[in-house]
Amino acid sequence: MDKLLTTSGGRQQLLLGNEAIVRGALEAGVAFVTCYPGTPSSEVPDTFYRLRKQNPGATRYYFEYSTNEKVALECAAGAAVAGLRTMCTMKHVGVNVAADPLMTLAYVGVNAGMVILTADDPSLFSSQNEQDNRYYARLSGLPLLEPVGPAELKEVTKYAFSLSEELGLPVLMRTTTRVNHAREPVPFQRLPKTKTQGKFEKAPFQYVTVPAVSRNLHLKLLAAQKQALAISEKSDLNKIFGSGKLGVITSGVSVNYVLDAVDDLGAKKKIKVLKLGFSWPLPEKKIARFLKSVDKVLVVEEGEPIVEEAVNAIANRCGAKCDIGGKQMWKFPPVSVDVERPKFLSRAFEYNPRMVREVMAKYFGLKQQAPRPVSLKGIPDLPGRPPNLCAGCPHRATFYAVKEVVGPDAIHPTDIGCYTLGLLPPISMADFLICMGSSVSSSGGLSFATGKKTVSFIGDSTFFHSGLTGLVNAVHNNHDFTLVILDNGTTAMTGHQPNPGVDTEALGDPTTHIDIEQVVRGLGVQHVTTIKPFKVRSAMAAIQKAVDFKGVSVIISQELCPLYARRVAPKTKRPFAVNPNKCKGHLDCIQKVACPAMFLDDQGKAQINPLQCIGCALCAQICPENAILPVKAKA
Amino acid sequence: MKTMRIVNVAVGGQGNLLASNLLGQAALDSGVPVVVSEIHGMAQRGGVVESAIILGGARSPVVADGEADIIVSFEPVETMRILNKANRDTLVLTNTRPLPPFTVAIGAAPYPDTTEALKVVGRKVGKLIAFDGQDLAEQAENPLSLNMVMLGALFATGELAVPVKSIKKMIRQNTKKRFVPSNIKAFDLGYKAALAA
Ligand SMILES: Cc1ncc(C[n+]2csc(CCOP(=O)(O)OP(=O)(O)O)c2C)c(N)n1
Ligand code: SF4
DSSP letters of A509-568? Predict the structure, then answer.
């Protein structure tokens, strides 16, 4: 049995932050889990999915990968209002998609614990922006918890369910990449019995948000916030460490940096730290007492100066005279942020222990001894190691075929997934991207405004996530472009999760397989063709017809992601090799498609690494000399 | 207990995260406070994978510039790229076998002379231990065991509060049965190579 399903308590296990969230939810008896994957949250749903599948007898919760975050939240809302403990997970930008239900679900409330995970990504390790989702707590009026590491994550997740029930509101739990992807020992408590049967008592004047109802619900929400404030004032999650006349107020992963800095500066008796783990509603009275007890206070928070602004307002109201440092936006214009050597704390990018320690030492006038980084003089220029589509990736073949047909001048709105790597040369086929689904809808604007040939790209998971409504819009309004749906049968980028178009039989899952071509036809698209991207010539012929069509045309490029295929349907094709006698050194193979299995030998001729080549045969069809052939089977 | 900040760096597919996780498990097993962190943005697609293991009680899950006590690098160019984490006392362990990035393989960028460059590195840091770890992995008859070789070398430094017994136990418990003998052999070869260096 998986260690996460250990029913008894007592032991410690080394857990990834995201696994700790799962264990916390299990210890709370979670009965219903929905999500849309996205880094850095993905291991939470992936762990729920794996545990359920590997231990059907020992797991009682319902789990689903939903089509998008809005759907995930609405689905979870139904279960929570009917009395099941529910969790809904997403990355920070997912909350934008789910924002509409979130705002009004806050009015309606829940009848059993509901925890919504928002996993933020300061420094944009794998995201399109680094928005600070703590604002969503203020916008929705929902309580916000911010654990600092895996051990606390487990405890806080568990607590969040009971807090949610106490208030009758969903609770937001906000993490950042460094918290989700840290590992540390986590003590286990025992697993309870899970209640999986809910009950819904009709009460339309509580649950149907017509204006007359919502007016009352807003007042109810405001009352619940008052109750939440009282809990926040007393919460152990808002805790003071150390003592002294200097103060730091901090939350999230920065708590670790601050506490380490206090140790490193030998300042346990000089600096006291207020850690805000229950960070909305802010414990105003606790903060006021803290401010009155110190001469100077530094607010350390990644992202926007949300707590800092609030602390200034609280100081004004309570008459605290201490100096308040932090980002001090009114003094320092954001453009002068020097992330490497901060004079003050940055609004951009994540923090680190050194940066926080340096700012604290400077602000408090303390001496610090930090080793200096070595100088990089004499170190040669280093070749980059940019990510690249895998060897045998079908996206590469589709890009090649489209470019051969439309040339370099066409405009390519793109979307989010592995295929966004088509941005890099030599493919260079990504021109515009703002969020999931934007490929489809922005194509109408771009093609109208420029009159240029527009061919956009979207993955299968992204198409179901937010491509459908855009496509209906395009048909309805007679837009003129070609949409290429890159159907690799999985959600590759975030770890190969299933999506509605996936043939789930291969995964042994009981859900249905929704045929993309039928969907597209059903949406009213007149010109639809499904192609096999590794059959280059016929793919190009079909693409030519699609781009010649006036109006909305759709190409569905269908081929499994080979990394995924290796897992569900392993077949081995023979690798290819370049015949040196036939190769004339055009290098089209290398220059047009940049497959990582190819390299140049000492004579400057193309070669193929047989350990990486998976036999997709794309290069063989590109070579004008037909010099690339399958390796002969060994006798 | 003294805080020990270790940074592991490798190319996607070299098994860095498994090595870090095993070290974390071994620390827990032997009662040494530990935090591990991973950044694996695009690992599957040939990018760089960095992880940090902090032993001894510090809470921060990351190691800042100039603050690594030990750097373990699975590839010589990545050793140079991570050098901003080193200070003049840092102990650097590196595999010397290049794994040229794709840009180099297709002739779009040169691969530097790493033998020369590693000499420069050696003069900047506390100590440099450089050896062909990939060769040792091949000697262990498991080319994918470079991560075990590097773990062995790390333990040979004698700088860790975690005993060899614990890490071997974790290798036996947490790597695929079929690979345990070659993994242990790779660990021992790395251990010896670092002692000899
Ligand atoms: C609103 C939102 N949710 C989630 C993500 C994370 N995310 C990025 S790409 C992607 C899915 C990609 O799958 P698909 O479109 O099938 O392309 P593939 O990677 O398989 O090529 C996800 C979930 C995001 N960027 N934005
Ligand atoms: S994981 Fe799959 S879809 Fe993504 S780049 Fe690799 S082969 Fe392509």
Answer: -------HHHHHHHTT-SEEEEE-TTSHHHHHHHHHHHHHSSSEEEEEEE---HHHHHHH
